[in-house]
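A reminder from the course coordinator: this example appears on the midterm review sheet, so study it carefully.

Given structure:
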């Protein structure tokens, strides 16, 4: 048995507010105030977990949202701003095709220009773009049973066999980890699968597990 990815989780001082923002932006359902769930089972639910401290720096992972046309891209940006998001500076030069924004608690995300072949057919959330070496991509490919769809120049990406949102790791240079992880996977696994994950290089933590790169993982067992 492989583990099942049940949500991508973001730390939030006001989980309900962020759930409302992302539900409205993506047109997804709110379930239990802190969980945002898509109608398409190829996409990955988003959960917000409470923390007491504000975000200290850039996240180590962010969403890339897709668009179907330049007008669609601008509509998505305008909608995000109307909902309480803002434009965000991560050092971009201004001539990039994508547009960098942040949600009401400054979680960065990009609205990607139309015609991006890598994200074609993935859905509204094209990918979760993260920081990490190839080994972490190999680990999660084995852990979830998701094939590698990219493995070049120390960059890796995986995607469910059903398609949908990709998860990518960009390779070096790596950003420093500042404080507890604010973007985490939530997985469901039985004890046999947990043992297999530990054999693959995961470690146990107070919250559940950490992957071989030290990324915290919420674990639901059954």
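Designed residues:
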């Amino acid at each position: 048995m492989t583990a099942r990815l049940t949500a991508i989780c973001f730390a939030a001082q006001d989980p309900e507010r962020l759930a409302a923002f992302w539900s409205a932006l993506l047109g997804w359902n709110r379930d239990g105030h802190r969980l945002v769930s898509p109608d398409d089972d190829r996409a990955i639910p988003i959960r917000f977990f409470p923390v007491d401290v504000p975000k200290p720096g850039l996240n180590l992972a962010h969403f890339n949202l897709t668009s179907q046309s330049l007008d669609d891209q601008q509509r998505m940006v305008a909608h995000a701003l109307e909902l309480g998001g803002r434009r965000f500076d991560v050092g971009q030069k201004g001539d990039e095709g994508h547009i960098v924004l942040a949600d009401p608690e400054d979680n960065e995300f990009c609205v990607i220009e139309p015609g991006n072949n890598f994200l074609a057919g993935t859905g509204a959330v094209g990918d979760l773009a993260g920081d990490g070496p190839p080994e972490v991509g190999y680990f999660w490919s084995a852990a979830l049973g998701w094939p590698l769809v990219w493995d070049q120049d120390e960059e890796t990406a995986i995607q469910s066999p059903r398609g949908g949102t990709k998860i990518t790791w960009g390779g070096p240079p790596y950003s420093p980890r500042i404080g507890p992880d604010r973007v985490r996977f939530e997985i469901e696994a039985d004890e046999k699968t947990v043992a297999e994950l530990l054999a693959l290089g995961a470690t146990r933590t107070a919250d559940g597990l950490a992957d071989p790169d030290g990324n915290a993982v919420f674990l639901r067992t059954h």
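Helices lie at 15-26, 70-82, 134-144, 191-200. The chain has one domain: 4-221.
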